[in-house]
Amino acid sequence: MGLFRRGPKRDSRDAPRDLAFPFFSVDEAARFRSQVREAFAEHGLEVTLYADQVTDSSGRQFGLSNLAAVCHHDERGPRVWGDLARRHAGMVLRTMDSPSALDTLPPEQIRAQLYPRVISEDGLDPQTFGYARSVAPGLYEVLALDLPESVMMLTDEALEPLGRLQHLRERALSNLQELPIEGHETVKDSDGTRFEVLLGDSFYTASRVLSLDAVVRKVTGRPIPPDGALVAMPFRHQLAFHVIHDTSIIPTLTAMTAFAASGYEDAPGAVSPYVYWWRAGALTQLSARDGEGLRIVVGDDFHELLERLARQESPDDI
């Protein structure tokens, strides 16, 4: 998975765009949906196509947003969309037709495969995820069961027989901290910009913001200082951070704002297009939407931090 994705040869952006998936042209979207229908048919299920989902004769619905984003970003282009659709259809049907893992796995194995996941509030039903913890405006932490072919988001009802929520969360965080670093790249520029990016196939890469102290120690060998760090989690497979030491935070914040917004757009498992100030485990949002773009929003505490960092540098260094 690349840091800055380079798209395959595709229809020009001037071509008419699909309403449900604007990253596709109308022709590309038609090809994608046709591949999806054929994929389900090969698995023995006839489906009815809609703009962003398919349904079968029993009324089951299968959303297409994540699959469409995966196809869009695959560097091999439309020639592999059929293979991706067949793999997706097979996985979805096996998951839906198999007995629930909550009924077949022993409780201790469930706890061993439990992870916290940071997700957007979009689509989060407060009636079934009443335990979800807010980690930043519009972002929530829920618990998920990691399975060989899928990730099961656990509802209030699913968690009830597994034990106390506090103990489950502690176990999930411990499991998260034990995950390996799959990939790491450094982004830097001559203007002082520098930030680290974790990349991986894991669905919990972005969620490692919940254990950022452990991540930073693994990557840099040092703890996060009291001033904290900048963080961004554009989509589930990326986490970016910059440990705050000096005024290099200024160009880095600008660069990370663009990075987060670009990574979030049309991504599978999109989390947030914003940059945050991590301090002692709390997240403060530093960027926001401004019309069609983004702007940096600095509160009093962060402004005081910038002024103090500037004062600490000698005139020759500024």
Structure in words:
- With 318 residues, the chain is α+β, with helices and mostly antiparallel strands.
- The protein has three domains: 26-97, no CATH class; 101-177, no CATH class; 183-312, no CATH class.
- Helices cover 34% and strands 22% of the residues.
- The chain is built from ten helices and 15 strands.
- It has a six-stranded antiparallel β-sheet. Strands 4, 5, 6 and 7 form a four-stranded antiparallel β-sheet that branches.
- A hairpin with a 2-residue loop joins strand 5 (133-136) and strand 6.
- It is globular, with a radius of gyration of 21 Å.
- The two termini are 37 Å apart.
- The relative contact order is 0.09.
- The mean pLDDT is 90.
Offer a quick outline of the entry:
The protein has 318 residues and is of the alpha+beta class. It contains 10 helices and 15 strands.
Q: Summarize the amount of helix as a percent range.
A: 25-40%
Secondary structure class reads alpha+beta
Rg, Å, rounded: 21 Å
Shape: globular
**N-C termini distance:** 37 Å
Number of strands: 15
**Biggest sheet features:** 6 strands, antiparallel
Identify low-pLDDT runs: none
What's the number of structural domains?
3
